[in-house]
Amino acid sequence: MAENKTQATSASVADFIATVSNERRRADTLTVLQIYKELTGHPPVMWGPSIIGFGERHYAYESGREGSIAAAGFSPRKTNLAFYVGSNFAGAEALYKRLGKHKKAVSCLYINKLTDIDEQVLREIIAKDYAQSMANKG
């Protein structure tokens, strides 16, 4: 079975953040970094070349595919901040409605800048998604 493309690396999170050319996005990234450290209790680790992850969890599918992924994480992209969060936790729909300006996919949340959203609601989404992720490990 093929290995996951995205794996934890020893690359420096600080060095990666320094490459974020948009000053506002870099500042937002530093704020989000602190939020994740606070909510997960884990240090940041680079997963692949562009994902900042916190904690780790094992997964196994009925197909036999299994591996490890970051339990929580985000990526400062050129056009937005991408948060790897789902909607499988209690109250998700109501929280996303209160969040502010964002786009949502199945397991990604896209925000242009932190001033577009309610940061407290973002904290709740991250915390609840992380708790759900950890409850489903293994």
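Second entry:
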Amino acid sequence: MKKIIHTSEAPAAIGPYSQATLVNGTLYISGQIPVDPETGKLVEGIDKETHQVMKNLKAILTEAGMTFDNAVKASIFLKNMDDFAVVNEIYASYFDSGVYPARETVQVSCLPKNVDVEISMIAFKD
């Protein structure tokens, strides 16, 4: 059974996709960029961008009845790999249990709206 997950606490999709899809306990979250859902505006600066992306992911997880503890896989896309240490530190701070999902981080030439970071995630709950 497939259920579309949507919350106003995260930015609306900017294309033909859903914020997330829940299938048999597995939540597939679309890539989140640093858009503040209250204003619809991008936040700037890699620190603020990363925090906003993580807040957006958290809002979607919450809507699905999950937390970062349910995350099993994350994909981080960076415009500049020199931002890796900052993004990594902020990302890690959202996992209270200290148990982290599998992950890859890749540098890309461009991201939607020319942001510096985008993160997608897969989470699971029985």
